[in-house]
């Protein structure tokens, strides 16, 4: 009959060995540096309109950080980023200085607000759909600073595409 304690000890030893091997492998030669040279070849400016339709505060905060990182990454690759973020859908409820009682307790709200400020400071333009704010009960006068209220976020996204901006849907 197998004894559980030695079996658990063997499993722990095996996991420790795999963890040590993984750590050693990651401490080896420097990780490769990736770039977007093929996509950015010959480009001076990268124009993107991010249509953001996310209804979860934590996920919204995470994706706004990704957009910020993309902006920085493009600039590091010597292409001037020209980004516009257009917010539509239920996530607009997280983009106000006076959130409703049902979302006010979310710890991600501060993260969202801080990242919106970082985007604004980086020169990324942001717009919020007034159709969505009306649907979600958000007072347009209380939208986070740096976000412009527009009539219709879909129309805005279409207009930017007509101006040569690449559409990046973020759901």
UniProtKB/TrEMBL annotation:
Alphabetically list the UniProt keywords: Signal
Q: Where is the signal peptide?
A: 1-22
Is this entry keyworded Signal?
yes
InterPro entries cross-referenced by the UniProt entry: DsrEFH-like, Sulphur_relay_DsrE/F-like
Keyword Signal recorded: yes
PANTHER family attached to this UniProt entry: BLR3518 PROTEIN
Name this protein carries in UniProt: Uncharacterized protein
